[in-house]
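User: Can you recover a sequence for this backbone? Please restate the input before giving your answer.

Assistant: Of course. Working from this structure:
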């Protein structure tokens, strides 16, 4: 059986549904929605209460607009966690693993909540789900960070610097 060992996204999903989600469901009645490709057919075959695979979704706006929390339980990766940035831009507070929070240099309790093991991850989800004040604070801080670091002026300056041959 393919276990997601060479696919960070599939590994994160399997880790979440097998280790974290059962702990979350002990405290909070919520559902977990998965959007994206499944070239392995593993997600198509899932039959776990509260877990729903949506398949490929052309426009994620509706998913974001109907979600309370975005989770990023990634255990290994390279690059920028773009879905985390996108979710935050929609105003969705995030519970993330330490690795993806550190890739963005986001701080636990400020721009997101960080869970380092299944119990802590589940606890942070439960806390964020039930604490409106915390939910609003994380939402506000992550949205402000997105506006500051991912606006068009910052992007254009980065492109300009990348192609500036006078500093090389």
């Amino acid at each position: 059986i393919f276990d997601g060992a060479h696919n960070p996204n599939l590994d994160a999903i399997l880790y979440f549904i097998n280790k974290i989600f059962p702990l979350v469901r002990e405290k909070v009645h919520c559902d977990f929605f998965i959007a994206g490709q499944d070239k392995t057919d593993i997600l198509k075959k899932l039959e776990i209460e509260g877990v729903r695979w949506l398949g490929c979704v052309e426009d994620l706006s509706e998913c974001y607009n109907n979600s309370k929390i975005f989770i990023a339980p990634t255990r290994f990766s390279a690059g920028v966690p773009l879905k985390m940035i996108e979710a935050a831009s929609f105003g969705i507070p995030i519970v993330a693993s330490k690795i993806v929070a550190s890739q963005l240099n986001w701080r636990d309790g400020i721009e997101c909540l960080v869970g380092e093991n299944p119990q802590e991850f589940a606890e942070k989800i439960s806390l964020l789900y039930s604490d409106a004040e915390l939910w609003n604070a994380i939402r506000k801080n992550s949205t402000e960070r997105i506006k500051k670091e991912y606006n068009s002026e910052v992007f254009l300056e980065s492109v300009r610097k990348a192609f500036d041959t006078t500093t090389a």
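That completes the design. The chain is about 50% helix and 10% strand.
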